[in-house]
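Submission sheet (multi-component)
Chains listed below:
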Amino acid sequence: DAKTTQPPSMDCAEGRAANLPCNHSTISGNEYVYWYRQIHSQGPQYIIHGLKNNETNEMASLIITEDRKSSTLILPHATLRDTAVYYCIVRPQGNMLTFGGGTRLMVKP
Amino acid sequence: DAGVIQSPRHEVTEMGQEVTLRCKPISGHNSLFWYRQTMMRGLELLIYFNNNVPIDDSGMPEDRFSAKMPNASFSTLKIQPSEPRDSAVYFCASKEQDPGNTEAFFGQGTRLTVV
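Outcome: structure written.
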């Protein structure tokens, strides 16, 4: 699976958009970009995934660059409950999920 | 559906004892994963099953660890004998088998402490 690089930590003000970057410069054509998050003491939770096009759901938006070498997860209006570790994962269809270090997002009042 | 159910939620055991962790996947999911999480090593994939068959167990640390999936609704992860360095949170996850990009659902985890 392609390796991902994420900043270890980020802060965001409550109510503002949180933009979490992820670099995956070695991604290959059949690999999807997945985002999960882990709130303290809980199991990881799926957020969103995409291949080429930008995606949006009720939780977040995923912006993938045209060359697919990086992506950004956007939480449009962060709340204190969004404080968590966010994992960016790239994987081919059919393979298991391999987690890296993730980004620890702290939403502050 | 109640989601992925793991038991026990907490386990404290003495070194050398056998430990069995249990997982009930979401009904209809035919892929199951066992992960271990520690501060030092993060989330590590130990083993995963497709249709009750182990596909990749390269993450299992050593022979003291074994996992079984006797049917589609139950899996166990056993450590025998347990050691203090096995202390971690163990997560089970399930998903529909690809193709069809689907999300994995995780249980709440079992926090294991070996003293």
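Remark: Chain B touches chain A through 22 residues (CB under 8 Å).
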